Recover the amino acids of this structure.
């Protein structure tokens, strides 16, 4: 008999989903992505593995939803509307200060040891698996990038960014260097680095005469 | 009995190494990194697997040396000195043109379908494996980045880049966006994009008044 959909069963279902998300993130941190299995996630979350197979086609899909869930929770905490995965970038009228604020927050997220392993695992899977990579970009990355486009457009209207700049490309001068440093581990990812990237991108490398 | 080291045995050894490199690159392209094994590489290269175990501790190490070998061969073709893994960035006196030339070449390399799978595989392994990632940076990436530092320092002496810019950070505004787009597959990686990144980085996003 199919269970009647009641507020109670919906709450139980939400609780199970969150337990599964948390179990997936914890397991990837502890044993790595390759050794994380649906069975292991189910055991840790205290649900049957059929529950997971009913909702997700793969462990990558579980991990992706775990990050979406986290992003949604983080956004709610800072007052984003329901369904929004991120708050907007502030517009105080000082473009450099606003971008430094958000890039410093990104540095802190990337350096957060509790999420480092699953974030790296999911990103690395997307590097080799085109389909998963496209889903990662569509669901998790693009909504973040759209916030930069909005802020840079406002800066163009305010005269702080040249009118002939494409905001979708300009934002890559900001987040590209950060992600490059984090992904390839070339040098430490610090607030000072975030600040310098913002200053270099806005001011340019050439002398202003 | 240990074989006497003669010019002939040294040549045979070079041939075996190159066969092993090529076999590793081909196998990763065909079956993926996870399913590539030392046994499979040995069979394809026509050597015993003990030969591979004698020279390399892991398949990741084989793949890393395969890329070093490729980089060395490519550099020799364009006239770099022996042991150099890359030619320098040209200095025609036109910084933007020189950087566009080298970034367009990087775009072509990243889009080369014959090397895409092994390049992605090795990079993705470095994203999750800190030790391998550090080796990748030390052996393969840092020598490339040093060429940008040299060219940007020359540009500072020529007055084309501000004296207070750190070349080691400035180069990340150039290659960070390219690698970000390639690794995360956000949008197509084209020559036009390489050109725009160079123009934005040199000129900056803010109006020049």
């Amino acid at each position: 008999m199919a269970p009647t959909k009641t507020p109670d069963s919906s709450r139980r279902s939400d609780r199970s989903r969150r337990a599964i998300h948390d179990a997936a993130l914890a397991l990837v941190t502890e044993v790595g992505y390759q050794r994380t299995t649906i069975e292991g996630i189910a055991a840790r979350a205290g649900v049957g593995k059929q529950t997971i197979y009913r909702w997700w086609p793969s462990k990558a899909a579980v991990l992706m939803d775990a990050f979406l869930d986290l992003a949604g929770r983080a956004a709610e905490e800072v007052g984003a509307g329901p369904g929004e995965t991120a708050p907007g970038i502030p517009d105080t009228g000082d473009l450099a200060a606003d971008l430094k604020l958000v890039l410093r927050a990104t540095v802190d997220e990337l350096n957060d040891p509790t999420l480092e392993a699953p974030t790296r695992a999911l990103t690395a899977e997307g590097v080799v698996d085109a389909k998963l990579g496209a889903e990662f970009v569509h669901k998790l990355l693009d909504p973040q990038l759209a916030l930069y486009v909005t802020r840079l457009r406002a800066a163009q209207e305010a005269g702080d960014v040249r009118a002939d700049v494409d905001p979708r490309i300009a934002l890559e001068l900001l987040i590209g260097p950060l992600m490059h440093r984090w992904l390839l581990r070339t040098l430490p990812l610090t607030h000072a680095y975030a600040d310098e990237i913002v200053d270099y991108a806005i001011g340019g490398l050439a002398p202003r005469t």
In short: Chain B touches chain A through 57 residues (CB under 8 Å). Chain B is about 70% helix and 0% strand. The radius of gyration of chain B is 20 Å. The mean pLDDT of chain B is 91.
